[in-house]
Amino acid sequence: MKPLISIEAAAKALFSSLTPSDTESVSLADAFGRVLRESLTADRPIPPFDRVMMDGIAIDSSEFHGIGTEFLIVGTQAAGSPPLEKTQAQTCFEVMTGAILPHGCDCVIPVEEISITQDSVILSPDAVIEAGHYIHSIGSDSAEGSVLLKANTRLGPAEIAIAASVGKIQLDVSKLPRITLLTSGDEVIPPSQTPQNFEIRSSHPSFLIHLIESNTLGTCQHVHLPDDRSITSEAIHTALQNSDILIFTGGISKGKFDYIAPELSARIGEPLFHGVKQRPGKPFACWHDAATSTSVFALPGNPVSVCATATRYLLPALIQHLTLSSPIQHVKLAHPFHWKPPIPGFAPCSINNDQTATIHQMQNSGDYLCLAGCHGFVYFSQPQIEYAVDTELPFYPFLIK
Amino acid sequence: MKPLISIEAAAKALFSSLTPSDTESVSLADAFGRVLRESLTADRPIPPFDRVMMDGIAIDSSEFHGIGTEFLIVGTQAAGSPPLEKTQAQTCFEVMTGAILPHGCDCVIPVEEISITQDSVILSPDAVIEAGHYIHSIGSDSAEGSVLLKANTRLGPAEIAIAASVGKIQLDVSKLPRITLLTSGDEVIPPSQTPQNFEIRSSHPSFLIHLIESNTLGTCQHVHLPDDRSITSEAIHTALQNSDILIFTGGISKGKFDYIAPELSARIGEPLFHGVKQRPGKPFACWHDAATSTSVFALPGNPVSVCATATRYLLPALIQHLTLSSPIQHVKLAHPFHWKPPIPGFAPCSINNDQTATIHQMQNSGDYLCLAGCHGFVYFSQPQIEYAVDTELPFYPFLIK
Lengths: 401, 401
Description:
The structure is a homodimer. Chain A has six helices and 27 strands. In chain A, the strands form eight sheets. Chain A has a six-stranded mixed sheet, with no helix packed on it. Chain A folds into four domains: 7-22 and 175-321, Molybdenum Cofactor Biosythetic Enzyme, Chain A (3-Layer(aba) Sandwich), CATH 3.40.980; 28-42 and 147-173, no CATH class; 51-136, Molybdopterin biosynthesis moea protein, domain 3 (Molybdopterin biosynthesis moeA protein, domain 3); 329-397, Beta Barrel (Beta-clip), CATH 2.40.340.10. In chain A, strand 19 (285-289) and strand 20 (294-299) form a beta hairpin. By secondary structure, chain A is α+β, with helices and mostly antiparallel strands. Chains A and B meet through helix 2, strand 15, helix 3 and strand 21 of A and helix 2, strand 15, helix 3 and strand 21 of B.
């Protein structure tokens, strides 16, 4: 293990090693949550026609000559029908919300502001009669060809709706990295099995795979490694061939059976760093294979260490790899908090409904129960300090926006 | 249409009509994002054994007699192996992180704090020698049978990991409502088709289905209705039979072809309300069929109205139906903002990295481009008011925590 480096130096080494992901074309139906890699433009003016905004009648406002002016209804302009044509003076059309404005009309009067006797319409004294009224005019939101979504935008519900509205049914997006998660430890058994009194059930995959896949940041497969050097070596060989990113949990400290670090170094050279001056997660290590652009994250084995290092380093690295701009968030402390460790570090927290953070007290990095109801980690950069209520802290969420 | 009611009265009528969803049992692999309906307890003490927290050696601390005391290594306690037994004085075991503490030992000394000569260990002068050191002792996080997750909790990554760790491979969760989304309008064509100059492409399903399903709040199917009374009537009949929740978009104003409201009222009685004093989304209506507990949301047809009413009313209703406790969030305005309409309402906003809200200016409720990059809506309760920077406003997010 090299000497411990600072959190800032670890982040710098990691983030400067990353390369942007390739792009691929996906259908609109598969694009949710993905990162757009092209700019998306309007194929028509928006709105694409003079759009009626209220149910009512459409008139030529110049034909209004004061209270009592009558208009004869000569047709109905339904939404989805070609535009009607006004050919006679003092006539009007019934119009429906979403319809194209009939030719020869320039003003819509809502149904609440008219009275109809047989086919004749009289306007209410408080009706507004002016050109353009209740008309969402062609191109008033955006001109044809204008940029609606920039590249490197995440496609959430609203962005997918915008893509649908301009008929963009294939989109260039960031290719998701193929991630192999390699957990380790002879004491770890599947959740479905009954442990002996020196065994524990596997839980890291449950956390990590959901963290990554629910944020649409990669596709994961999972392998569990026994504490066996040749199996570990073979698994690393296979994973390096099949994956863009490797994630290990456990087996990277100074234990007699910690084969992962030496096997990785033998295959792809020295780590970017191994050991960070932080709590929890001190044994955290990263490698980068320049030949294949494969990134390797070796997270410590304790549950809170896994969660903290995955949230602080892995998620932001995936976000950067996918070319999504996502500056660090900040939240204010809901209460004073004494960061006791002699080094900086991360504490699990929940975000309250006023967006302040409440710290979840943890006993040690093995105390995974403190993660219940947690929304992410805050960063305490100064050791052994009493942080005041309302102190603004960097926040690393489980769920990206 | 009944007289307009206030936003508060609409919310009260809607939320008091809702019933809690049924429960169902799902496997751990399918439980992510779901709402837990049982409390989840520890099947063993946590940790389940005296767990070694560092790679090093385990000794009996009472056998330490000052600087220079030597211990003979008599075995290796690997993680995942049954506990060894110390039988002779002044002996120790090599121990690995995650292993059970060997019987007869009470203290772990990390590898950094010892020196080994052949099989003999001398402790560093600054090693801490006390009973319990670097031991995560059995039951210290939680006793067997204690509650780890309460009912009505959302199962995020950390909660799924906790369930895995206690071997809970089947969980009782809220059943997701079967939702039928019925869009309407003859002017609306599928995104894959080329519109004529009086047509627009369908975008509401893209927004609504992703909004609901990415939050794991329901399963949606979509039907598009032409402006035809008998087809509308038949579709309502079928949807009421097949669904727990119906969502309409458009066709509920005063247009000549707005058949949805009369057809619904004919089948399931008068609406809870129809028309809310808000902007956007004034024509919004809700029905509740007491006989079948079916809720019906009739959203207006303009895109920003759809998004605002879905975010303010539909999502919170689904959250309540699924029995998830989720009090209203608040955010502070990043800038002064003048709410110009003569009635209260909702504005789309993005949440900045300091958790403040920046309002997206919209031209009118048809201006869906203002939704790009938006994270939800804030509520302006006072009409025609200049809101100061830092004013705290209720916030309705697209993405629930």
